[in-house]
Amino acid sequence: MPTSESEHQRVDLDWSRMPRHIAIIMDGNGRWAQARNLPRVFGHRQGVLALKPIVKTCARLGVSVLTVYAFSTENWIRPKAEVDALMDLLMEFLRAETAELKMEGVSIRTIGDIAKLPPRARSALQESMRRTANEQRMILNLALNYGGRDELVRAVNRWIQRRDNEALTEETLASYLDTAGLPDPDLLIRSSGEERISNFMLWQIAYAEIYVTKTMWPDFDPEELIKAIRAFQSRTRRFGAVE
Ligand code: FPP
Question: Among 54, 127, 51, 141, which residue's Cα sits nearest to residue 89?
Fold first, then answer.
C-alpha cells in the first residue's frame, strides 16, 4: 500500500489497477557482465543486488505476489562453477535478507522441484520460509529448479495417485500446481530484450500481459518496474471477450 500522499504522486500509477501478481524472468546477467569484461558470476551477483529494491517496491505498491525465475530445470547444464555460484548466491541472499524481508511483511515461498537442490540450499530455504511464514503483505515466490512442463507433469502425477475416477478439470489441475491458491500473474516482465517464455509458468500466464524491456536484469531498477506497471495499466485486458 502507498505509505503517504506524496508516494501516490511520485509514482503516478493507478492504485486501483495494480497487478496482483507480477512474474519476472530476470534475464541478461551474463551479457551484462560480459559487456564489462567481467565473469558471468559477477553479473549474477549484481542480479541479486537488483532484486532487493524490486521486492521492496512491489511490497510497497500493494502487489500480493512477486514470482522471480531464479533457476530453471534447464540451468543445470551450465558449467558446474556457475551452478554452484548461483546456489551460493541464493544462500547468501537468504542469509542476508530474510530478516529485512520479514520486517517488510514479505513471506518467502518457492515453486519448482526444490527436493533436487543441494541440501545446503534447501535447508537455507526451509529456514527462511519458516521464519517468514506468517507474513501477510506480499509473497516472494522464488522459482528454483522450476520448469513449467516439469510442474505440469508433477501435478498430473500427484493427481493420478489421488483421483477417484473423476475427470480432470482446470480447477483441479490448478490445485495440484506449485502455485495452488495463488492468483495467476497479471503481468509478466522479461528483461534483456528476449521475446521468449523459456518454460516459465506455462499454465499460469494464460492471460498475463507481457512486458519486455531491453534493460539487462542487473540494471532493472524500481523506475523500470514502475514503467512496466504503467504499460500494464494502459492496456485493455479482454480475457477472450470482445471490447
Ligand atoms: C539469466 O541470466 C539469469 C539466471 C539464469 C539466473 C537469475 C538469477 C539471479 C538474478 C540471481 C539469483 C537469484 C536469487 C533469488 C538469489 P543469464 O545468465 O541467462 O544471462 P544471459 O542471457 O545474458 O547469459
Answer: 51
